[in-house]
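TA notes, week 10

Several of you asked for a full example with nothing omitted. So below is the full record: structure tokens for the whole chain, then the designed sequence directly under it. When grading your own attempts, check the secondary structure regions first.
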């Protein structure tokens, strides 16, 4: 056996490769700006999603040839494409507004260095390759005053968070300012428990934080009733309090990046209630800006409608008439006028476009007050995705036509075709199920360590599956262990599904991307009601003794409670002829697809081994929207999925 080369030499080689990669990424970014210059002349849109898909398809194939996982290649290049798009947008926006181009910007933000507002402002300026001069403020009013008075060029205001929602104080400030919104930026908010080095969580008695992080980390904080919470004006102030303390019984909630500026360590991370926790900031300045036609743009309005029934609906119908998408609607009370409200609206459209201008003219005739707060480039870059068919095979898809239905449904039932004629589609991250989108799930019902699960998840992804259904009642002893399992699944590029096998499993629903109600609880109306209040997709497994009507009635309970992201799962039923045998009810599948718009997936794990693949193929031919197979996956599973994705 050959002796491996020394570890130091291997690390030196990796360092050299990393340096070369960074050099190549820098050169690629420079070339993307050349593309922007070309698009400036030809006035072509910034994004060409068809070319992006072709690029990803080619790179996935090249990556496979070099032994690289398709998910790794796609996630890497999605980040590169996003960076390229945002840089091109910043370049063209700057070219369209030469008066704003300076080497130094004085930027007003909430708090001091290390606050989330500071991190957002830094990222915004770095992308525009300008030096930021800090102007920390104690309140949102101070930020607006600093820009209005000329002490700062720009102000950064947090407008909304994916966990805690809109930040009402900022909307109130916008009612009374002459400033214009000239930009936006969104940052990932990774809340950590920050303390001095060597501090143990068990010794923490006091936690300093801004009210927003406290709201966004409420579940974590509820697990530590011993913490005394102290509110601060910003995350930076909270971190300063920890530094100033003369003991190690205090901590702050903030970002690891911000904590590093204060020599604080993250003793716990991932504190936020939601796995994806992002904050959107708006950028305000004294003068409005022009947005080039090829850039995706947002226009923000503020308006007050007349005090008559249907006034707001009448105004919103104007946007529909001009094919304008409203991406945000917020209301705030008008000071001094009880029960009257001001409405804030974000429109996906450029103020320079004719349809936006015409819509605003019509709104002027319908409203008591209307004002454009700003038009600015939209910085939300939707990642280009490849379908499972594109990942595995050439995309030539066809679907069978279902036979006439036998069941009937009342027009008042929310699952019926009378209620909604078009097939519903449930989307969760890269997974799409329904409306001609086919999903593949793998059921993992044996205990796994993180290492074993990571290996299984990698194989699952490579075989073509899109999601893992995990049974927490088998070998998972705590929410923290379950959370780690779901993080492993997420790192593999798969959607995590929590299988609810016991009533108390629902308390862990917030940890997963989706939940699946076991068939044994299909008749539990209390559980169904709780699932209806969840803001995540729900899969309802059919009880093996339930009729199709019982199954749809369970779906109705969830839909009525508000959750419209419902998938039905047939895992087989018992027949009178063979009470000990469970098999898919393919005849009901045909009838239900005819009279129900909800997606239906089929779980063939209960079928006899030699009957699983034929049943899966039959389900696909009868228009099933997905399949569930049991772990571990085999080459035969992979071949089956290639066939089903056709």
């Amino acid at each position: 056996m050959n002796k491996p080369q020394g570890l130091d030499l291997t690390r030196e080689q990796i360092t050299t490769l990393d340096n070369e990669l960074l050099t190549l990424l820098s050169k690629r970014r420079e070339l993307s700006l050349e593309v922007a210059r070309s698009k400036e002349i030809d006035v072509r849109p910034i994004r060409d999603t068809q070319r992006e898909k072709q690029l990803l398809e080619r790179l996935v194939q090249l990556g496979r040839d070099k032994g690289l996982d398709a998910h790794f290649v796609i996630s890497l290049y999605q980040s590169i494409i996003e960076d390229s798009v945002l840089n091109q947008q910043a370049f063209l926006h700057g070219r369209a507004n030469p008066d704003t181009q300076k080497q130094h910007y004085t930027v007003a933000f909430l708090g001091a260095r290390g606050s989330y507002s500071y991190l957002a402002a830094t990222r915004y300026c770095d992308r525009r390759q300008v030096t930021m001069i800090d102007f920390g403020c104690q309140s949102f009013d101070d930020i607006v005053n600093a820009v209005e008075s000329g002490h700062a060029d720009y102000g950064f205001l947090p407008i909304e968070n994916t966990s805690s929602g809109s930040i009402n104080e900022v909307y109130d400030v916008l009612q009374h300012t002459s400033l214009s919104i000239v930009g936006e930026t969104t940052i990932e908010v990774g809340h950590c428990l920050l303390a001095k080095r060597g501090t143990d969580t068990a010794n923490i008695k006091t936690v300093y934080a801004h009210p927003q992080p406290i709201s966004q980390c409420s579940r974590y904080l509820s697990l530590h009733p011993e913490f005394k919470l102290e509110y601060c004006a910003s995350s930076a102030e909270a971190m300063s309090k920890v530094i100033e303390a003369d003991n190690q019984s205090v901590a702050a909630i903030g970002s690891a990046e911000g904590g590093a500026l204060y020599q604080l360590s993250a003793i716990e991370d991932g504190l936020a209630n939601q796995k994806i926790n992002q904050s959107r900031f708006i950028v305000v300045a004294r003068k409005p800006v022009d947005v080039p036609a090829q850039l995706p743009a947002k226009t923000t309005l503020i308006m007050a409608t007349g005090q008559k029934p249907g006034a707001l609906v009448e105004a919103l119908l104007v946007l529909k008439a001009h094919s304008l998408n409203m991406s945000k609607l917020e209301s705030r009370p008008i000071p001094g006028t009880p029960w009257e409200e001001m409405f804030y609206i974000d429109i996906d459209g450029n103020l320079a476009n004719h349809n936006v201008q015409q819509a605003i003219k019509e709104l002027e005739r319908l409203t008591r007050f209307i004002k454009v707060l700003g038009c600015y480039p939209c910085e939300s870059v939707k990642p280009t995705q490849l379908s499972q068919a594109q990942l595995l095979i050439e995309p030539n898809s066809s679907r069978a036509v279902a036979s006439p239905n036998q069941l009937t449904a009342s027009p008042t039932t929310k699952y019926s075709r009378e209620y909604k004629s078009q097939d519903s589609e449930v989307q969760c991250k890269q997974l799409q199920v329904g409306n001609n989108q086919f999903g593949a799930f793998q059921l993992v019902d044996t205990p796994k360590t993180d290492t074993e699960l990571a290996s299984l998840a990698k194989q699952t992804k490579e075989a073509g599956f899109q999601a893992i259904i995990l049974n927490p009642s088998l070998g998972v002893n705590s929410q923290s262990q379950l959370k780690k399992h779901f993080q492993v699944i997420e790192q593999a590029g798969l959607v995590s599904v929590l299988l609810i096998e016991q009533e108390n499993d629902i308390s862990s629903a917030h940890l997963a991307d989706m939940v699946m109600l076991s068939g044994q609880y299909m008749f539990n109306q209390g559980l169904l009601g709780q699932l209806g209040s969840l803001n995540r997709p729900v899969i309802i497994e059919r009880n093996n003794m339930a009729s199709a009507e019982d199954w749809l009635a369970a779906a109705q309970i969830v839909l009525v409670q508000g959750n419209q992201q419902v998938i039905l799962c047939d895992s087989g039923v018992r027949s009178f002829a063979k009470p000990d045998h469970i098999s898919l009810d393919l005849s009901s599948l045909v009838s239900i697809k005819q009279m129900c718009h909800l997606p239906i997936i089929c779980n063939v794990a209960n079928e006899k081994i030699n009957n699983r693949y034929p049943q899966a193929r039959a389900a696909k031919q009868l228009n099933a929207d997905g399949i569930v197979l049991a772990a571990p996956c085999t080459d035969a599973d992979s071949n089956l999925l290639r066939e089903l994705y056709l």
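Confidence is low (pLDDT under 50) at residues 393-406. Use that as a sanity check on your answer.
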